[in-house]
Amino acid sequence: MVVGIEKAVSAANSVVSSAKKTPTAIPSDCVINLARGDPTMYQPYWRRMGDKCTVVISGHDLMSYFSDPGNLCWFLMPELDDAIRRLHRVVGNAVVDDDRYVVVGTGSTQLFQAVLYALSSQDNPDTEPLSVVAAAPFYSSYPEETEFLRSGLYKWAGDAYAFDKDGAYVECVTSPNNPDGTIREAVVNREGGKLIHDLAYYWPQYTAITGKADNDIMLFTFSKATGHAGSRIGWAIVKDKEVAIKMVKYMELSSIGVSKESQLRAAKILEVIAEDCVNSGPEKEENFFEYGHRLMSERWEKLREVVKRNGVFSLPKYPRDFCNFKGKDTDPSPAFAWLKTKDGLNCDNLLREFKIVTRGGTNFGVDSDYTRISMLSVDEEFNLFLERLAAIKGTMNGNY
Amino acid sequence: MVVGIEKAVSAANSVVSSAKKTPTAIPSDCVINLARGDPTMYQPYWRRMGDKCTVVISGHDLMSYFSDPGNLCWFLMPELDDAIRRLHRVVGNAVVDDDRYVVVGTGSTQLFQAVLYALSSQDNPDTEPLSVVAAAPFYSSYPEETEFLRSGLYKWAGDAYAFDKDGAYVECVTSPNNPDGTIREAVVNREGGKLIHDLAYYWPQYTAITGKADNDIMLFTFSKATGHAGSRIGWAIVKDKEVAIKMVKYMELSSIGVSKESQLRAAKILEVIAEDCVNSGPEKEENFFEYGHRLMSERWEKLREVVKRNGVFSLPKYPRDFCNFKGKDTDPSPAFAWLKTKDGLNCDNLLREFKIVTRGGTNFGVDSDYTRISMLSVDEEFNLFLERLAAIKGTMNGNY
């Protein structure tokens, strides 16, 4: 199955004509980049909200480094702390009792590194670097974020399934998992292990909320919860005070805190979402998570249909589960499609020939017949992606 | 000269009565923290500007990770890039020709670390860590920011004056210097050296602008330029494309870019300042830098008067210089007072007994008879600081 670039362009061009039927802002022969999970699909919802989430910031506002000098996390704005805890209570996806510490970060990316620092600088001042593992397929940035500064505190130790070293380690548990959407638990489960729970996708638009997560260190991010990636706001919910203190120390040393403008806006938006969820009733407009879940379900249905029809790829199947938030059984609709070629071809390369840029399986510690595709792009891009994916079958048939 | 805590409290209480004459929001017996350079003194200026610098951000704005996908620094908002270059042109403090790269960061703190990564991961993939030095007294955070992750790429190598290792190194040149306000140049000047110019304080309110800085890597920060520390915005102006690319890579790995809300607001505020500077005339209100310089000059005059009168401390003297921006000779008025006890006592400890918290000389690589005091606090705090400083003499006299 060799697909020449001419055929790919021709296939792409054939999409042009049908795409032109409905006017689109995206040139239909352009490259579609679905490699990064840029969550732009939620924008129409926020546009519809009008001024409800608008923040107005004067020139003299938010000037000091400090937000709450008496708080352990002195740069966390109290209104954001409140909004985070309230939303988790309303959604029921995490325990946020008063004895838990909230640490805000410049996205959960910075917090992940803050946790590595906190866990590794705590107990082993002079020993060898702490091993960091995650079960494959794992989030593609974990290895690079762990390795790029060649820290003597921690080092990437690869697939948790293959980890057999004794002693202290850190396991990253991403659930639902990025890239493959599965619900996960720790796999190493040995003495001396510490866990980071990356719960970026544990929200009702992506999965059933089956209970309040109650882990030692839980990471969430504004990007995936509401689609506001440009704000770079993440938060950690932490049980242990010493870990929280060390994380705050990391934030001080790496950036002296976190943008207050972003914190203020995140607080406002999270407040509005929580309020809308509480007020939802038969006569009310759908709340953010209902909207998100409806869109994601529709996209997954369309994608599964295209994949089924063209016969070239497969997708994971997910069990239905009862969602406490929605109050009914729901199908998961992950933020990424974990696409696999049935015949073992390099899935990322194949899609690139059709001008669809994705992130190949090897980035996630598995084979290249897998690739990860963002499901969170704008409608026009997602529809063009489906058209191109559907076109692969037509083009392939001769060689297949 | 041993000052008991009772005496200190008594001295502090004696300040209360005089402080009470003019009502103040700060309890006059409270601890004044001048250890961090929180630039809250500029707030009245920004309040006076009314809505001129107000930004309004709707719920659907600024959602994507990307700001300018075609730019090397893809997360930098074009309006911030423009505003930064325009302000430097108006002030005349840095070369910002089109062939220079602007990289935005979460404060210049994050950018400092991005530069270390860029310079160390570039040329020496497997050799020993790159030495990082700065001439004492140096910014107290450089050692910790360089060391805290025990990177294999770079390591803190102390005072540049004492550095005698062969081979590659990085020298941080802070000018005007933090903590002591002096104008600086590189001191090592050897083959294989690379320079980071930290120009956080090279603005007209602190020093004479004597020419456009034209160094390879220059760091600036919104905090010290305008007083907006809570926004966490810094920028680097970089000559070498490969260095800029590596810095952007660091920003991707450490936080996937920089808050767009903060960038938008910084763009607005820098634009307004530049516009006001250009429009200044005899009938116009004073521009931001004129305001800042007037306040700083007044504070320095008062401080020098108190120091002269009580005889316990000394302050550095700075040469007058012609400021191209102001068009006249001016006295420097640094953001920090670098206070020294005349008799060699621990200056930080002495001030703490009078409930003034500062950052002692040993943090900056010199003796404890020096301490650094922020000159950028709000008026009430600064005045209370002066009163307590003046009171030290009276209390001391018995033991002195």
UniProtKB/TrEMBL annotation, chains A, B:
Keywords: Aminotransferase, Pyridoxal phosphate, Transferase
Pfam families: Alliinase_C
Residues in Alliinase C-terminal domain copies: 32-392
GO biological process: amino acid metabolic process
GO molecular function, one term: transaminase activity
Gene3D superfamilies to which the protein is assigned, alphabetical: Aspartate Aminotransferase, domain 1, EGF-like, alliinase, Type I PLP-dependent aspartate aminotransferase-like (Major domain)
Cofactor: pyridoxal 5'-phosphate
Similarity field: Belongs to the alliinase family.
Record's protein name: Tryptophan aminotransferase of Arabidopsis 1, SHADE AVOIDANCE 3, WEAK ETHYLENE INSENSITIVE 8
